[in-house]
Specification:
2 copies of one chain form a homodimer. Chain A has about 325 residues and is of the alpha/beta class. Chain A has 11 helices and 12 strands. In chain A, the strands form 2 sheets. Chain A has a 7-stranded mixed sheet with strand order 3-2-1-4-12-11-5, sandwiched between helices. In chain A, helix 1 crosses helix 10, helix 4 runs parallel beside helix 5 and helix 6 crosses helix 7.
């Protein structure tokens, strides 16, 4: 099995990407990595590491799509970019099972949708991150940005995809599906949420627990949260912004609190470290684009080597467990 | 000036409501409170306090609308509920300037829309909480739940209302308006966001800084965040859920961390206290329903006396500064 890795995606590429790639090889056997990007830069960087040479291939790609470019235009024009060349390799080589990138989300989504075949019956692929909860179990939020405007049928499909992913990866037995809404009562929500509720509740084989408010995403009471990509993105980013605000305010308060605060901080350091680990959902891997015949994993642009390692191992696991084959839309 | 207070709204009513009311009288002169609810219960509770008797009136209301009831039906049927009687008094008595309740959000919104006249030109009133940011300046999020399905023109009006509120209350000079979206670039978003962007950017007299992601709500870089009520509710609740998760995880970690953690916690107690104060946006008052000829303030159902005091003082301030008159839609 090969995992295709965009060596030039993200703020810390290629150094952190390549470091993460080498580390992932040390952590798991039986897979190879295809590094895509400027091959001389990649080879120079690789020369700094000890690794099994036959487990890394390099695929040359001359250009890089940046976050500033219009995704559709960039994908069309930059045929020699690491994203386009990487996804072409994923499509053409049966041994290639997944593509991992921390590059432009828009470009990855656009190119993946163009180059990789959709699963039968799937209307639109959706982006699904794994998030932490208060019980330390994880929750899947789907969609969180691939589809800004959705129809109820699409959200039903997201639920099916989320369940397949949850079952295969997280070993969650309950597969509780909640619909993200602005109130818990039946009949709440905008038109899309109301219609989706009415659609999903008629479907068999889904453990549908009804509407949930965004507060409940992190409660541990739900395994798959279904929503349109616009609302999912807002939930995800509002959560990130709040966590950042809290941690920043704490840090400032400790800094200006004198010696007492600083000693307190030192004593609580293990607690802060554990907290940071729980919150850092990049350690859980990246957001998976579900609904295509191959696996695409999108990482945060700011990802460091640890996140790349986690995402590569996540890609291997998803491929080994054949999550894609378990998504059956009917 | 009189502030009408729903004595039977919220999980801790009437005890905490009445405590908060008495405290607010001690904090500010020149206003009266009309307590609405079962008058014998209210009088018995009031008898526990020392206060200027002529500054509290009691208006009897036999029933209470609960969160479990359908708002529209409950407002129609329970004409003798504290919400309906309180809002009728607000409408009929020129001296009554604002209504404060921690009761059913749906019922307050429904009854307010039915009983209080809309401002000229306003299509729909919107709910606007004041939230903390990382710079400790505040931000207004409008709408956060009054309107699940919106049109671009409505969001433009929310921006105008938010600016009037921000200018009057927060003393913010910049009045930076951001449109909540799933990306910052022009052209991002769902249909509503795209059309709203195109509408607002043509309008004069608005300091429109363009799209913002939900992460930026808490950055201090924007003063008024405009969105539909569905998305705003999700941003608000996702933020609440994340803060709750963080504080819970910290507490658990400290508790199981042994003596070292506990000493660390004691030393950092002032920091945690300050953090809690910054985060507790109920101390900033409640969410204001803007767009009607009178002021409605909605508090969290779990509010304690401190929040009621804050909301009553907020109601007095909004009324004194004549925010309502400053909302001019054109």
């Amino acid at each position: 099995m090969k995992i295709v890795l965009d060596a030039f995606g993200g703020d810390n590429s290629p150094v952190e990407v390549i470091k993460g790639a080498v580390e992932s090889l040390n952590k798991k056997e039986n897979f190879k990595i295809v590094l895509v990007g400027n091959s001389s830069v990649i080879c120079a960087e690789l020369s700094k590491y000890e690794y099994e040479k036959n487990r890394i291939e390099v695929l040359n790609a001359e250009s890089v799509i940046t976050n500033e470019e219009s995704p559709v235009e960039a994908v069309r024009k930059k045929r020699n970019s690491s994203i386009v060349i990487g996804l072409k390799a994923l499509n053409e080589d049966a041994e290639c099972k997944a593509f991992v990138s921390a590059g432009s989300t828009g470009a990855v989504l656009t190119a993946a949708t163009l180059l990789i075949k959709r699963l039968e019956g799937v209307a639109r692929p959706a982006l699904a991150p794994v998030l932490p909860t208060v019980t330390k179990e994880n929750v899947i939020l789907i969609d969180c940005g691939a589809n800004s405007d959705c129809k109820p049928e699409m959200l039903y499909q997201f639920a099916k995809m989320g369940i397949a992913y949850s079952q295969a990866i997280m070993g969650v037995g309950k597969n509780r599906v909640g619909l993200l809404n602005n109130g818990v009562e039946e009949g709440k929500g905008n038109e899309l949420a109301k219609e989706t509720y009415n659609l999903i509740k008629t479907k068999k084989g889904i453990n549908f627990i009804g509407n949930i408010e965004a507060r409940e995403i992190f409660s541990g009471d739900v395994d798959v949260v279904v929503t349109d990509g616009f609302s999912g993105n807002i939930a995800l980013k509002a959560s990130e912004g709040t966590a950042t605000m809290l941690l920043t305010l704490m840090k400032e308060s400790i800094m200006k609190g004198g010696i007492r605060s600083k000693i307190g901080y030192l004593l609580l350091k293990p607690m802060f470290k554990e907290l940071k680990k729980t919150l850092d959902y990049n350690d859980l891997g990246g957001a998976v684009l579900l609904g295509l015949e191959k696996v695409i994993i999108k990482l945060h642009g700011s990802s460091k080597s640890k996140s790349f390692t986690a995402a590569i191992l996540q890609a291997v696991e998803i491929s080994q467990k054949e999550v894609v084959k378990k998504i059956i839309i009917n």
